[in-house]
Amino acid sequence: MLKLIESLRKRLGRSNPLDLELWVRGLLIHYFFHTSERGRIELAGEGGRTLKLLTPTQFKGDGRVRLDVSAVFGVPRSPGAYSCSYIEARTPESLIEVGPGCVFNNRCVLISEGASIRFGANVLVGPELHVMDSNSHDLRLTHRRSPDPRPAGVEIGDEVFIGSRVTILKGVKIGRGCVIAAGAVVTPGFEAPAMSIVAGNPARVVGQVSPEGMNP
């Protein structure tokens, strides 16, 4: 066994690093998609019937996952390019819906537990986004091994920009064109008007998106 490992190590050492990188990432993409519950995925839109998975992404659950074929999952030249994004419509009533033109960076986690998570069109998402439409557990002290009895849908409008390591919790509504700053924790029931800048933990509106053609 040691001789086999040493032989593989030498062969890998002589290989083209860029070729090896593409091969390893491609194998991981194939593995995680192969182990997904692919029958739950519904494809919408025009331009082919193939998902754009550029880094490992896994789909699980008993609910519906409705994806526009133009949506992109993963950014190879970004942290976490070998880590797996995880998308789960956990219960039969759950729905995760992604509109056209959305791009998700790596290590994204979307979990629906009976309500819904909806992304509009052209949403840009930084690495390590975490979105849930429930508290995962009932918060009452004597019921914490039970599911949340009151999940609430999450709605993210068109043209929203979400920074890295953002957490979005149940019942949140993000209006069109908003910017969610890196590290924000958007607490249950929060509503961001269109074109707002949202930041902080807990998140709050801290400004407005600049007019077209101007940077803050």
Secondary-structure map:
Blueprint: H1 2-14, H2 17-34, E1 41-44, E2 52-53, E3 57-61, E4 64-68, E5 72-73, E6 85-89, E7 95-98, E8 103-104, E9 109-112, E10 117-119, E11 124-125, E12 130-132, E13 154-156, E14 161-162, E15 167-168, E16 173-174, E17 179-180, E18 185-186, E19 191-192, E20 196-199, E21 204-208
What's the story with the biggest beta sheet?
8 strands, mixed
Residue ranges: pLDDT <50 for 5 or more in a row? none
Average predicted local confidence, pLDDT: 91
Strand percentage, roughly? 25-35%
Number of domains: 1
| CATH domain topology | UDP N-Acetylglucosamine Acyltransferase, domain 1
Order of helices and strands: HHEEEEEEEEEEEEEEEEEEEEE
CATH class: Mainly Beta
Helix content: 10-25%
> How much is the radius of gyration in Å?
19 Å
What does this structure look like?
- The protein has helices at 2-14, 17-34, and strands at residues 41-44, 52-53, 57-61, 64-68, 72-73, 85-89, 95-98, 103-104, 109-112, 117-119, 124-125, 130-132, 154-156, 161-162, 167-168, 173-174, 179-180, 185-186, 191-192, 196-199, 204-208.
- The protein has two helices and 21 strands.
- It is of the alpha/beta class and 216 residues long.
- It is globular and about 60 Å long.
- The chain starts with a helix and ends in an 8-residue tail after the last strand.
- The protein has a single domain (16-208), classed as 3 Solenoid (UDP N-Acetylglucosamine Acyltransferase, domain 1).
- Strands 2-5-8-11-14-17-20-21 form an eight-stranded mixed beta sheet, with no helix packed on it. A seven-stranded parallel beta sheet has the order 1-4-7-10-13-16-19, with no helix packed on it.
